[in-house]
Amino acid sequence: MTIIRLNPDGLHHTPGYHHVTVADARRTAYLAGQCPLDKAGDLVGGGDVFAQVDQVVANTRAVLASVHATPKDVVRTVIYVTDDADRSLGDVWRRLLDSPLAPAFTSASTLLGVSRLGFPGQLIELDVTAALPDHEG
Question: What are phi and psi of 22, to 5 degrees?
């Protein structure tokens, strides 16, 4: 499997992601939106977006591992963060880039401020698509 990440000429410089990701994978995985919930289903880090980012990162890594994928196999991410004047979307982006999931965000990525997410107190959710290695292990 080959994954190519491109920034075509004539487009703006990006802060780490690429405008286009091309994968020749035969199989792909579409992860459900990863939320800041612990194993018991309880919300982690009420009011603390960075604690929630860290839980989302841990959950996403576990789901990727379950299908024998790594952050380098991610071909698309969409990051949803509740809109709050006290919170910078850029701060969330930088926290993700400093995490063990960082290689996932070199692919085509979108960061959105939203008014609300599915669980009371939820501040972030991550939607991921990964190209899977050829083996089905």
Answer: -120, 130
